[in-house]
Design a protein that fits this description.
Largest sheet: 9 strands, mixed
Number of domains: 1
Strand content: 25-35%
Number of helices: 5
Distance between the termini: 70 Å
Number of strands: 15
Order of helices and strands: HEEEHEHEEEEEEHEEEEEH
Radius of gyration: 23 Å
Helix content: 25-40%
Length: 267
């Protein structure tokens, strides 16, 4: 007769254990990982661009909230130049810039595509005297109206470290530097230093990637997060630092571990 109370105790322990697991796995941990994104409309979107031939290109790693006019004002205030469109003239000019080592601050960028659309905006910041080394970002409008009623853009910012041949197609192209998180941080720092950011927050991107390759076959590594900056309106410079919305604890811990690993594997 004593076996029944013992069995009930074990059933109670199992029930408590199962309930604890369900709460931990399906409530607590998802909440700790969740970004509680200010722009939930971005959550279901793909996070990698494509080349014209459909090869996966550069991953998305930045976002901006604001109108096209706000973006142009902010980027110029931060020292980034709008890229010229790709034409025969600009193609000849960029070749001359690379070969003759002369400045071309608004050199064109090769097109990339996101959900079938070519970038609507592109900007660059020269690094040296010619167009073979530069920081550059491509941007796509992804939400006409975000949570705050303003347009939301996603982009891919990378560093062109030199000109060479694509590993996949053999075409002449720029090769990017592998540390795309560093480029993401540079862009947001430039915008913040220029007083162009109201707020800065993070959303989930492609996830931690150690051995990624872009559309030209260049390796890259990233913690897989996207920094999103909410821009000031009408170019009104902000004197205070942007409001920072911190990531969830587990995301922050993951990023700390990730960056320790990425520093150990290279630049």
């Amino acid at each position: 007769m004593k076996s029944f109370p013992r069995r009930r105790r074990w059933l109670l322990v199992l029930a408590i254990g199962a309930s604890g697991y369900l709460i931990l796995a399906y409530v607590v941990l998802p909440l700790l990982w969740s970004h509680h994104e200010r722009e939930p409309g971005l959550a279901s979107l793909p996070m990698v661009t494509r080349t014209g031939t459909g090869i996966p290109g550069d991953p998305l790693n930045v976002g901006l909230v604001g109108s096209e006019e706000d973006i142009v004002r902010a980027m110029q205030a931060a020292g980034w130049f709008p890229a010229d469109p790709v034409t025969l003239r600009t193609s000849i000019e960029i070749v001359g810039s690379v070969v003759l080592d002369r400045p071309y601050h608004d050199a064109p960028v090769s097109p990339l595509y996101y959900e079938g659309k070519k970038e609507q905006l592109a900007f660059e910041r020269p690094d040296g005297t010619s167009a073979d080394r530069r920081h550059h970002v491509r941007l796509w409008l992804v939400l006409e109206k975000g949570v705050g009623g303003r347009p939301v853009w996603l982009g891919a910012v990378t560093f062109d470290r030199g000109v060479g041949l694509s590993r996949y197609t053999g075409q002449v192209t720029h090769h990017i530097g592998p540390n795309i998180d560093e480029e993401r941080n540079l862009l947001m720092r430039d915008l913040s230093d220029a007083g162009m950011l109201e707020a800065l927050f993070q959303i989930s991107g492609i996830g931690p990637t150690l051995f990624g390759r872009n559309g030209g076959g260049d390796p890259y590594h990233t913690d897989g997060e996207i920094d999103v900056g909410s821009l000031v309106t009408n170019g009104a410079r902000r004197t205070a630092p942007p409001a920072l919305l911190p990531p969830p604890p587990l995301i922050a811990l993951k990023d700390q571990i990730w960056h320790s690993v990425s520093k150990a594997i290279g630049p």
